[in-house]
């Protein structure tokens, strides 16, 4: 029975479905921490989280079981035990669980009780809930092992406390959302610790996985609510915490010695880091050599170029200017200035020859019609085809640059500026784009590979946004001012408010009704948009899943 425990928290990135890579990462941590008593890994570390329908392949389940047995045998060497998240089959049911590997065997398993089934989560599609878990005895300490969602409800921790748990170790796959770190610590973990009088170690994964990104930011809180350990966000980190058993009255209590105390990214750096890490892992894990994107001289493409450079380095980012007869000299200068500041390759491919060809080709059927939206969209689609040609020919993934405000109301051309393999701004409203651009132009993110100084000419941020598809075009010709539009969209999309509720907040009814109409009409476009990182509570695709065809409206 020990009076001191060394528990190593391994905040790691994961490769969904790549069991060999995940096992190698776990063993590397174990090898580097031979004096640890117990090494803890994030939720579903063995197979990666979230596995989605990959989990329906029996071969994956079988391989996971075999790999877990191999990992267990490693602990026969007398070194550190391991807490490994994986999948388990019991009585024909599949469970999300955790195994204690100790002494060369699987010493204990515990299963997730609360299965999240909202927003990005649909675990009830795959797993059955386990029974309320019992504590696990490890070197004289009674460990309670709630898994992620289990601590968002009081029942599991209270049950474990009633059965004698002395330390909670909670493994997680908790995706980033704005203000999620505060909610995890103050709104959830501290409450469970204070309610039960039991300290809680919270271990989260880090890294991007398709449309979600994990920020890490693991921590340990004490039974009085004190923050004993704060691990960094947005990077892998391995921290060994030291726990001692001290006398309290007639009994004893485990306490964690105060350890690392990293400062977490504040707004809007956290948003920017989310976009950087998501793009980095998407490109690298899918084995693209780099990215290509259209650099227009506008703010959306400029900040996307900066994100790409911070994610991958300037040598893996290729920017292309695609001017038309409506492209201003100012835009040409700003695109060149942005490329120079970022240190990226910039090529220019004028689209006038292709536009002229389409004019000639369509003249017989467009006879008698004035140039309008179709001619504007042709320019955008020519740009999309051109960029895809470069991607196909040379291999870099095409980054698309539309923001959430535009995607919400359909101010984007399907098969044109929506072309691409990934969109860093998909869940960023235009006002967020402005805020992030202002921030990045004066600061470098903690995980960035780009320059310390400005990444775009200040004029890109201050000039009125324009698609430049017709003479003297401005976004404000077609849309309300972005501060107004984004406030309405926040109500309609993020908060599911009705037109009447938003009008009551001071907005013009005709404007709100129009925005609601455009939002509904653009659903078919969003279904065909590339993936992009989730930033808020209601991103398109994983969170907000509306039918394309429906007749419900909240305003007239």
TrEMBL record:
Cite the annotated pathway: Cofactor biosynthesis; NAD(+) biosynthesis; NAD(+) from deamido-NAD(+) (L-Gln route): step 1/1
**CN hydrolase domain: residues covered:** 5-246
Residues bound to ATP are: 294-301, 401
Q: What is this protein called?
A: Glutamine-dependent NAD(+) synthetase
Question: Does the keyword section mention ATP-binding?
Answer: yes
Q: Which PANTHER family match?
A: GLUTAMINE-DEPENDENT NAD(+) SYNTHETASE, NH 3 /GLUTAMINE-DEPENDENT NAD + SYNTHETASE
| Reactions mediated catalytically | deamido-NAD(+) + L-glutamine + ATP + H2O = L-glutamate + AMP + diphosphate + NAD(+) + H(+)
Gene that produces this protein: nadE
Q: Which organism is it from?
A: Novosphingobium jiangmenense
Keyword RNA-binding listed:
no
Q: Which InterPro entries does the annotation name?
A: C-N_Hydrolase, C-N_Hydrolase_sf, Gln-dep_NAD_synthase, NAD/GMP_synthase, NAD_synthase, Rossmann-like_a/b/a_fold
Keywords annotated in UniProt: ATP-binding, Ligase, NAD, Nucleotide-binding
- What is annotated as the active site? 43, 112, 148
Under which EC number(s) is this enzyme classified?
A: 6.3.5.1
**Entry's Gene Ontology molecular function annotations:** NAD+ synthase (glutamine-hydrolyzing) activity
């Amino acid at each position: 029975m020990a009076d001191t425990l060394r528990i190593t928290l391994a905040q790691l990135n994961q490769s969904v479905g790549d069991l060999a890579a995940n096992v190698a990462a776990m063993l590397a941590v174990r090898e580097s921490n031979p004096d640890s008593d117990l090494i803890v890994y994030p939720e579903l570390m063995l197979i990666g989280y979230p596995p989605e329908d990959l989990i329906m392949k029996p071969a994956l389940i079988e391989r996971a079981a075999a790999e877990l047995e191999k990992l267990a045998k490693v602990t026969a060497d007398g070194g550190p035990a391991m807490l490994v998240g994986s999948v388990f089959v019991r009585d024909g049911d599949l469970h999300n669980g955790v195994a204690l590997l100790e002494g060369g065997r699987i010493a204990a398993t515990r299963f997730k009780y609360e299965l999240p089934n909202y927003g990005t989560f649909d675990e009830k599609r795959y797993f059955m809930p386990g029974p309320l878990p019992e504590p696990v005895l490890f070197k004289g300490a009674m460990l309670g092992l709630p898994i992620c969602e289990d601590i968002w409800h009081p029942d599991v921790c209270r049950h474990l406390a009633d059965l004698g748990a002395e330390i909670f170790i909670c493994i997680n796959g908790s995706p980033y959302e704005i203000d999620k770190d505060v909610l995890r610590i103050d709104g959830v973990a501290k409450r469970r610790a204070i309610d039960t009088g039991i300290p809680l170690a919270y271990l989260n994964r880090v890294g991007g996985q398709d449309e979600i990104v994990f920020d890490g930011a693991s921590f340990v809180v004490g039974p009085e609510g004190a923050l004993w350990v704060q691990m960094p966000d947005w990077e892998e980190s391995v921290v060994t915490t030291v726990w001692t058993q001290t006398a309290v009255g007639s009994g004893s209590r485990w306490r964690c010695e105060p350890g690392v105390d990293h400062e977490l990214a504040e707004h809007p750096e956290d948003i920017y880091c989310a976009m950087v890490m998501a793009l980095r892992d998407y490109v690298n894990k899918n084995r693209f050599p780099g990215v290509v994107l259209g650099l227009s001289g506008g703010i959306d493409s400029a900040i996307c170029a900066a994100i790409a450079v911070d994610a991958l380095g300037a040598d893996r980012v290729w920017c292309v200017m695609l001017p038309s007869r409506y492209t201003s000299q100012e835009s040409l200068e700003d695109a060149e200035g942005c490329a120079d500041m970022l240190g990226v390759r910039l090529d220019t491919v004028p689209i006038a020859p292709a536009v002229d060809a389409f004019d000639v080709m369509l003249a017989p059927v467009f006879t008698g019609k004035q140039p309008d939206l179709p001619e504007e969209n042709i320019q955008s689609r020519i740009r999309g085809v051109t960029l895809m040609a470069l991607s196909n020919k040379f291999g870099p993934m095409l980054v698309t640059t539309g923001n959430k405000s535009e995607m919400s109301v359909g101010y984007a051309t399907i098969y044109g500026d929506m072309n691409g393999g990934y969109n860093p701004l998909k869940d960023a409203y235009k006002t967020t784009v402005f805020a992030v651009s202002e921030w990045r132009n004066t600061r470098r993110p903690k995980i960035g590979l780009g320059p310390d100084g400005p990444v775009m000419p200040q004029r890109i941020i201050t000039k009125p946004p324009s698609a430049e598809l017709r003479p003297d075009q401005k976004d404000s010709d077609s849309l309300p001012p972005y501060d107004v539009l984004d406030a309405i969209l926040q109500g309609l999309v993020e908060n599911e408010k009705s037109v009447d509720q938003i009008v009551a907040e001071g907005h013009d009814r005709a404007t709100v009704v129009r925005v609601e109409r455009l939002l509904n009409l653009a659903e078919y476009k969003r279904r065909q948009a590339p993936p992009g990182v989730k930033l808020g509570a209601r991103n398109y695709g994983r969170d907000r899943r509306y039918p394309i065809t429906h007749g419900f409206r909240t305003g007239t």
